[in-house]
Amino acid sequence: MAGSNFGTAFRFTTFGESHGPAMGCCVDGVPPGLPLAAGDIQHWLDRRKPGQSRFVTQRREPDQVEILSGVFDGRTTGTPIGLLIRNQDQRSGDYGEIKDQYRPGHADYTYDVKYGFRDYRGGGRASARETALRVAAGAIARRILGDGVRIRGALVEMGGDPVDRHAWDWGAIEHNPFWCPDMATATRWESQLDDVRKAGSSVGAVVEVVAEGVPPGLGEPVYDKLDADLAKAMMSINAVKAVEIGAGLEAARLRGEANADEMRLVDGRAVFLSNHAGGILGGISTGAPVVVRFAVKPTSSILTPRRSIDRFGKEVELRTKGRHDPCVGIRAVPVGEAMLACVLADHLLRDRALGPQPRGPAPLP
Length: 365
Description:
With about 375 residues, the protein is α+β, with helices and mostly antiparallel strands. It is about 25% helix and about 20% strand. It has seven helices and 18 strands. The strands form six sheets. A five-stranded antiparallel β-sheet has the order 1-2-3-7-4, covered by helices on one side. Strands 9-8-10-16-11 form a five-stranded antiparallel β-sheet. The chain has a two-stranded antiparallel sheet with strand order 5-6. The N and C termini lie far apart (about 60 Å). The relative contact order is 0.17.
């Protein structure tokens, strides 16, 4: 099976299945000498792990990371960094009844069509459990980017109900179970998602991730544009069905004079008066915040019976048992942050390989 690695200069490969004994990740391209300990990775994994509220899957996994290689005396050695996360709360029996049936909205049918064989326990490699390894890789990517680049994510819409952007408060995301930047909206979502959860159903969501402090000049024209790589990164996350950069689809509804990000010089440096481009022009970072949004479909595993077929060609009606997120978009927030970090770290290392580069026009005399 191809497609288990991501990146160019900063590259990681993941392995393992949702209900196997463990999952792992090999991160390559990390410069030597960076401070790194398991706790630096664990901090970010703890933000993603399941079972933290009644609004996410109740699978109890500590997601404790082990560093197997690439670190000595608390610093990276420049060799591949091996990471391992052991699975401890598998309930494979929850999937016994559907081992020959294709769950609507899942990858069951397509995996069987392509390979003629599949791991039906929680979806195997198609499970969102794999995203824990992306978060681990993202923690290392943040080390490469340094403290000057700040990456944050938020849930900005759930079940068709958006946040009030006039009430946006980054501090609020740590004080509600939705990573919501608007406490009034978070309170409303709590009641709504309780109803969805009790009905055995699910809803979709929109996640926004922002990187501030990104230096100008990152990105490779023509086919390795920064925004192209970001789109691929976000689309590779389970259940993601659309990606926007900056104004995104809204840009198609604006006139040219409204969409163009005007510029001025402040202390000899370029300053953008707006950021409809989302910090990227021509596939290259501008120095303005990089803004990415992605849409996450409703969790396909629901208790409501759905019509499908089985691998023997018979029509069936099934409902998915087990422990599932009523809104998988909630735990996608730290995953989106991690993938943004990985893409930026990759392009930063590619940029360094070119040697010292000019960064914007020279100051005016």
